[in-house]
Design brief:
heterodimer; A: 300 residues; mainly alpha; globular; B: 246 residues; two-stranded antiparallel sheet; 11 helices; 66% helix; elongated; transmembrane helix (chain B); ER membrane protein complex subunit 3 (chain B)
Chain lengths: 300, 246
């Protein structure tokens, strides 16, 4: 995940390059390092460097990495001719390369020729059955074709071997949520929390899934995770604040007949409500009325 | 015996500097040769999977307090289950891994190559130093030493009255051997430093790695007491919000 300093640096470089201030190569390197998806800009500035023979020779051996980066960006923007040209240049230089083979597969994918792409990927996998990127491309292909259950199956098989890959867990969780398989999604989010316990995003997503599952225990757990998100973000996450309010009122509704375990719940909810009001007042004053009426209906 | 020996500057010109230069050059040569000889090693799927299992088990142990107790328990059973737990390695298999590693021809070849590329230049240079540069005092160490070091540092010098700070060129060779690592990382780029000492350590503790670390992880996991940290977070969130609202 991209940190705040890296994000500001990226934006600054982007502004600089956009306004004609040079530094395109540093921008491209940073985009590559952070694995951000800014395909249009990469395509524009990468092509400007590649088409200028002086600048191209100034890059030296990095030229080929730039070709690869521009080829992928071109495929993302559907400029398939540009991608084909880059791939041809790379193929001339590295005839037996696996990376170029992967680019070929991606080009076939971009054109929509799924069967050929599948063939290319399978042959690459035969040579090296442990290539992570190719496995992930196959999953992406299944997802793009709309074959979600196939995508889930291949992703599960991938995770059986590479179970420490948290990006894959995240993708699986999102697929499960889209299919409303919330229990499985909860499991995936637990894995993510285990591998990176201080990232508030995962706590928030886990709390959302638990709240959707419902049931007293899940609601209580969900409230705790909304609270941990609030703690990790210093109270600035509006969604977590709303989540706390919703959870408390839902718990109150579900456990109406039984003894309410009152530990500290009322304070948390009222505090969250107050924080919400303060934030709305600062940022969206006109919507404050909506918020207060919604909160009032919750507290019943 | 604090006599000050005056050492000829010719020693510095013709012994210390050439020796360092030769060692640097040999190191660079070794790096390029190893790059040429490096064969692409197909990673063994079993080992990759075990590595990943270990990472996941370690994450579980480290962050166990962040997930609900039920999930933690079910995961612990999944890992340490007697029948088909991921971390459970029956005794028979443990021996097998090591034997297999030594009998697998590819791996044995690779190990041999790596070791050879390190041993041969070292032996040759050491023999060369001994042959040409022995029998005289090469340098003076700036701090005083005890008599114990005499046999190590003053090997070619057969006078027992010379101060231990005056050392032979063999010790200069060893100094260079361990000290040029920093220089190599500058010249050859950050990751390609001639980590001789690291490789020497690697030679010792080789084949046991997978099964031992698996059982170590399993023991660690069995020990962990799950203390759910989330209730604490509710209190902390309250404190945070109180500060925010007030």
């Amino acid at each position: 995940m991209v940190s705040k300093t890296e994000e500001t640096q990226l934006n600054r470089l982007e502004n600089q390059v956009d306004n004609g201030g040079g530094g395109a190569w540093e921008y491209l390197c940073l985009v590559r390092k952070l694995k951000v998806r800014r395909s249009e800009k990469v395509l524009k500035y990468g092509l400007s460097i590649l088409n200028d023979p002086k600048k191209r020779s100034a890059l030296g051996p990095e030229e080929w990495t730039l070709y690869e980066q521009v080829a992928i960006a071109a495929m993302d923007c559907q400029c398939l001719n540009v991608a084909k040209d880059c791939k041809k240049a790379l193929l001339k230089k590295f005839p037996e390369s696996k990376r170029v083979g992967r680019l070929e597969g991606m080009l076939l994918e971009a054109k929509g020729l799924w069967a050929e792409a599948e063939k290319v990927y399978s042959s690459l996998l035969e040579d090296n059955p442990l290539d992570q990127v190719i496995h992930k491309r196959k999953v992406a292909m299944a997802k793009a074709q709309g074959n979600i259950s196939g995508a889930i199956e291949s992703l599960n098989k991938y995770l059986e071997i590479f179970m420490a890959d948290h990006d894959a867990w995240r993708e699986l969780a999102e697929i499960y949520v889209s299919l409303q398989m919330y229990k499985q999604a909860a499991f995936c989010y637990e894995e993510l929390i285990l591998s990176q316990p201080t990232v508030p995003l995962y706590h928030l997503a886990y709390a959302d899934v638990l709240y959707t599952l419902g049931g007293l225990e899940n609601l209580q757990t969900s409230k705790k995770y909304y609270a941990s998100t609030i703690d990790l973000t210093g109270g600035k996450n509006t969604r977590a604040l709303l989540g706390v309010c919703l959870c408390t009122s839902a718990i109150g509704q579900v456990s109406k007949g039984r003894n309410k375990e009152d530990k500290e719940s009322p304070e948390l909810q009222s505090l969250a409500a107050k924080a919400l009001e303060k934030e709305y007042r600062q940022k969206a004053d006109d919507k404050l009325g909506l918020l207060t009426s919604a909160l009032r209906s919750l507290k019943i | 015996m604090a006599e000050d020996l005056v050492l000829d500057t010719a020693i510095r010109d013709w012994v210390l500097i050439p020796l360092s230069v030769v060692m640097v050059l040999i190191g660079i040569l070794r790096y390029f040769v190893s790059k040429l000889m490096r064969s692409f090693q197909v990673p063994d799927p079993k080992i990759v999977k075990e590595g990943q299992v270990i990472v996941r088990a370690r994450n579980l142990r480290g962050a166990a307090n962040f997930i609900p107790p039920k999930s933690f328990r079910s995961r612990r059973v999944y890992f340490s289950n007697e029948e088909n737990g991921l971390l459970f390695v029956p005794k028979g298999q443990a021996q097998n891994a090591q034997a297999q590693m030594f009998s697998d021809p590819n791996m044995a070849m690779d190990m041999m190559k790596k070791n050879l590329s390190m041993i041969i230049p070292q032996t040759l240079t050491f023999a060369w130093v001994n042959f040409f540069f022995s029998g005289f005092v090469a340098a003076k160490i700036p701090f005083p030493l005890t008599q114990r070091f005499r046999s190590m540092l003053q090997n070619g010098i057969d006078l027992s009255t010379v101060d231990v700070s005056y050392v032979s060129s063999r010790s200069w060779y060893f100094l260079n051997l361990f000290g040029l690592r920093g220089l190599f990382s500058l010249i050859l780029g950050e990751e390609n430093a001639m980590d001789d000492t690291q490789r020497m350590m690697q030679m010792g503790g080789f084949g046991f790695d997978p099964s031992k670390s698996l059982s170590a992880e399993k023991d660690g996991l069995d020990i962990v007491q799950h203390e759910w940290a989330l209730p604490k977070f509710e209190h902390r969130a309250e404190a945070v919000l109180k500060k925010l609202v007030s």
